[in-house]
Specification:
Elements: H1 4-7, H2 12-16, E1 33-34, H3 45-58, H4 68-87, E2 96-99, H5 102-117, E3 123-127, H6 136-142, E4 148-152, H7 165-169, E5 175-179, H8 191-200, E6 204-208, H9 212-215, H10 220-223, E7 227-231, E8 242-246, H11 248-253, E9 264-267, E10 272-274, H12 288-304, H13 306-325, E11 330-332, E12 343-348, H14 353-362, E13 365-366, E14 368-370, H15 375-381, E15 386-390, H16 397-413
Parallel strand pairs: 1-13, 3-4, 3-5, 5-6, 6-7
Antiparallel strand pairs: 2-8, 7-8, 9-10, 11-12, 12-15, 14-15
Helix pairs in contact: 3-12, 4-12, 13-16, 14-16
The structure holds ligand 7TS.
Length: 415
């Protein structure tokens, strides 16, 4: 049964036509149902063509040459920086630093801002649902420096225990670093409210936007994010590019992270002076073509509209969640319909998550199994691993039906 509410939000068949990979079959000869966009999204033709066009017609290194190709490559790279700034509501392109991925963006903040600003006894507040990318770097810094990490816990329904925040903010943390959307439960915390309270308490706010930015409209100023980290490859763009947004005054006060070419103003044998932001944080040749590809991905998402992307995924969540809950013995890690995207992690009594994923693959359905780099969250729910199905703009209710039907097959196979 086509779902009218859902199909009125996006023209998914038109979108799917831009993603040739979605039309292929798996090794079993079944048509592919790609439900692993939380790990990485597929790329539309427009992004792939932008990459090819750059390499076919414009390729050169940036910022270093006066020749035609170097100027074209530099212009394309810098235009994308401005496009990224507009996409997330940054005040200036100078607040956009290109890195390799969200992980590197967070590490940049931890190493540069953290090492310059955190002393023994200082507190950083995180949440129990963080991806390891927004946990391990803080643990690495905290250890040996006497910085204390405190956590907002996760409720049984996958939402954050927001009532814990005032007690944690009373500890006067220097930083509150929180994911804008869990890659396991799909929960999208009220980051604006967290930021408001954190700022009142004198803390800065880092938002791990690796999942939020691809799936919802983001305005860093409305959100109150001092830093925002995200990855191109999860938002229809190429891999190898990530973005760190940082408020200009903060970036300007921070020491460089990596040293090398492009991040300097002047170098002598005795020392160096750092370049202006954002170049101060972009040592070495960046992923130029991939940055240009990210620009094409942003154009693609803008043409659909991030409000529509968000609305479509919320409608998909309302469609999928109750159907999953009807599968006997299936338990969702985070079953709240409140503030969520279309990501579902679950376990089935008596069946290992990897076996679930294996049988689903037999039916053409690509899901991921494991702890999804959020081991503390799995520990909190007392399960070592879950299977995870994640939906994006190119997934349909019919594909959700195929997932649910295949889960009944999984039950039969392991009965
Ligand atoms: N933060 C969140 C919330 C994520 O989901 C991920 C990646 C990252 C940070 C790191 O992004 P990266 O591009 O630097 O790797 N999440 C996943 C996932 O759920 N499965 O594979 C990667």
């Amino acid at each position: 049964m086509p779902n009218l509410e859902i199909s009125s939000i996006l023209d998914v068949s038109r979108i799917r036509a831009d993603f040739p990979v979605l039309a292929r079959e798996t090794r079993e000869g079944v048509s592919l149902v790609y439900l692993d966009s939380t790990a990485t999204s597929q790329k539309p033709r427009q992004v792939i063509e932008a990459l090819a066009d750059f390499y076919l017609h414009h390729n050169a290194n940036i910022h270093r040459g006066v020749h035609t190709l170097a100027e074209e490559a530099t212009a394309a790279y810098e235009e994308t920086r401005a496009r990224v700034a507009r996409f997330i509501g940054a005040a200036s392109p100078k607040e956009i630093v290109f890195v390799r991925n969200a992980t590197e963006a967070i590490n940049l903040v931890v190493y540069s801002w953290g090492r310059a600003n955190l002393r023994e006894g200082d507190v950083v507040v995180l949440t129990e649902m963080e991806h390891h990318a927004n946990l391990v770097p803080w643990q690495m810094l905290a250890k040996g420096r006497g910085v204390k990490l405190e956590f907002i816990h996760v409720r049984p329904d996958g939402t954050l225990a927001m009532d814990e925040l005032p007690r944690l903010l009373a500890l006067k943390p220097k930083m509150v670093a929180v994911s804008g959307m869990s890659n396991v439960t799909g929960f999208q915390p009220d980051v604006a409210e967290i930021a408001r309270q954190a700022h009142d308490a004198g803390a800065l706010v880092l938002v791990d936007g690796a999942q939020l930015v691809p799936h919802a409209p983001v305005d860093v100023q409305a959100l109150g994010a001092d830093f925002l980290a995200f990855s191109s490859h999860k938002m229809l763009g190429p891999s190898g590019v990530g973005v760190l947004y940082g408020r200009r005054a903060l970036l300007e006060a921070m020491p460089p992270f990596l040293g090398g070419g492009d991040m300097i103003k002047r170098v002598t044998l005795e020392g160096f002076s750092a370049n202006a932001v954002p170049y101060k944080f972009e040592a070495g040749t960046p992923a130029i073509a991939e940055v240009v590809g990210l620009g094409a991905a942003i154009d693609y998402l803008n043409a659909i509209g991030m409000e529509a992307v968000h609305a479509y995924e919320q409608a998909m969540a309302r469609y999928v969640l109750p159907r999953l809950q009807e599968v006997p013995g299936l338990h969702l890690l985070g079953a709240s319909l409140e503030r969520r995207g279309a990501v579902f992690s679950f376990w089935i009594d008596g069946i290992h998550a990897h076996d679930v994923a294996q049988v689903l693959d037999y039916y053409g359905i690509a899901v991921r199994a494991g702890h999804h780099c959020a081991q503390p969250l799995h520990i909190r729910f007392g399960v070592p691993a879950t299977a995870r199905a994640s939906f994006y703009i190119y997934n349909t209710p019919e594909e959700a039906d195929r997932l649910v039907a295949a889960l009944y097959k999984v039950k039969e196979v392991f009965a």
